[in-house]
Amino acid sequence: EERPRRRARALAGSSGEGATKDGRKVKLLANIGTAADAESAAMDLEGSGLFRTEFLFLDREQAPSVEEQTETYTSVLKSFGDRRVVVRTLDAGADKPLAFADLGPEENPALGQRGVRLTQVREELMDNQLAALAAAREAVPESDLWVMAPMVATTEEARWFVDKCRAVGLPKAGIMVETPAAAIRSANVLAIADFASIGTNDLSQYTMAADRLEGDLAPLLSPWQPAVLSMIRETCRGGDATGKHIGVCGEAGGDPLMALVLVGLGVSSLSMAPSKVAAVRAALRLHDFETCKQMANYAVDAWSAKEAREAALRLADPVLRDLL
Ligand code: PEP
Ligand code: MG
To answer: Which residue positions in the chain have pLDDT lower than 50?
Structure first.
C-alpha cells in the first residue's frame, strides 16, 4: 500500500483532545505570531501555547502603543474563547532584531542583551506590554491568559517578571526555559514562576553551543542530542518537585516521535505549528504513558542523537512510521 494512503489512515479520526492511549491528557496547542494566525488556529485546537508577540513589533520605527497592543491581544483572546492562550512577552535581539529596541551593536548577539534582559534595560517595553495584556484580559472575561518571559536565566529575572505580572493582576506568570541555567536550576525558577515552557530551539542552541541560524550545524542542534534531552529531564524534575506545569513550545514538540519522548519525560502540553497537530495527536493515541516513559529513559541514556532516536523508534507502534 502506498505511503500517502497509509498516512491518511493513520491520521483518520485525529481530532479532539490530546491524550495517550491510556488517557493521560496532553494539551495540544498552536504556535502563533499574529491575530490572523489565531483565528485560523483556533478552530480545532485546545489553545495557543506560544504567541510570539514580537511579530507585532517587526518593521516598526516605534513600539506600538498600549491601545494598539490591547486591541491585538483582545482579538487573539476572543479567537480562543475560554481556551488557554500563552503569550510570550517581547523576545527581541539576536535572531529577532527590532529597530526601536536596539541597544547598539554587539559582538555576540545571541549571548547579548536579548529577551528578558533587553526588557530589563528598556523597562517601559515590558510595562506597556503587560498593561495591554491585563486590559485585554479584562475585555475578555472568559479568557484563560497565561503570560511568560523569554530567555530567563536567573531567579532574579524570574522574580522581576513575576512581580510585574502580579502588580497588574495577571494571574499566570511563567518563564521560558531556553538556557541551560534555567533548565538545571528549574526547581528554583519554578518556585517563583507559575509554570515553565521549554523553548527547545534556543535550549538546543545554548546547550550545544551551536548557532541555530547556521544550517551546517543542524546535526548538533537536534533535540535528540542526549545532552538536550538531559536538560529537558532536569527541567521536568523541577516541575515535579514544585508541582508546576511544564510545556514545550519549540519545534521539537511537532515531531510525533519526539512528542512521545517529551510526554514520557513529564511534559504536559505541546505547542507547535498548527499543521503538525494532527500527526502528534494520532501518535499519542497509539501509545500508553508507560511506553512514552520507557522511550524517554532509553533516549536520555543513549550516547548519540542517532541512537536516541532509534531507541525511541524501536518501542513505537509500527503505524507511527507512517506519521513521521
Ligand atoms: C524556542 O527557542 O524554542 C522558542 C520557542 O522560541 P523562538 O523559536 O521564538 O526563539
Ligand atoms: Mg527562543
So the answer is: none
